[in-house]
Design goal:
The protein has helices at residues 6-17, 44-52, 71-87, 93-97, 112-125, 195-204; strands spanning 18-19, 36-40, 68-69, 89-90, 109-110, 133-139, 145-153, 156-161, 164-169, 176-182, 185-192. By secondary structure, the chain is α+β, with helices and mostly antiparallel strands.
Length: 205
Amino acid sequence: MARMTGAKALMVAVAAMFVSTSAATPAPASALSMRTGSITSQPIGHYEFCRTHRDECQAGPRGVQPAKVTEFGWSVVREINASVNREITPMTDKELFGKDEFWAYPEGAGDCEDYVLLKRRMLMERGFAAADLLITVVRKPDGEGHAVLTVRSTDGDFILDNLNSDVKLWTKTPYRYLKRQSSFHAGRWVSIENGDAVMVSSVGN
């Protein structure tokens, strides 16, 4: 049997992670997915990150439905979440850069936004679409701000968190969801309209 080329092998690997869905089929309204609203303010750290990484903050097509991720695809998601959490040492931007807010790819250490950036890049390298990998700002129960990565899928929105190596449905986390990257433009942010109700429900469970 002929050996597959690198490009063909990559296509086969990507196909193993996703099941095709029709972009013309609307996604069902469900509490398993965040309900996003209007364009809102972009975090200053992400704004500055986009100035130096313009190719990662570009517009994409509108109306793209979430992918249906296979079991193998979810194993990749879990593997990357756990490995980044394990290999990166948590340190504040003040400790690393002498600034209160600085988003960057971590080199051995970083804060929550840096974990998110690395996980997002690694998942994109494995074939996930930028529209399904959205940096998300939340508020922890103690009131502190925090960043996580949302993976959109036909099964709902799942959270990759540097504080937890389990990949969880967003409704199973204790956070108040404030805003996230837009699925149609990586440099724009949208509000999350049903974030408060989820926080109350999660804390009460």
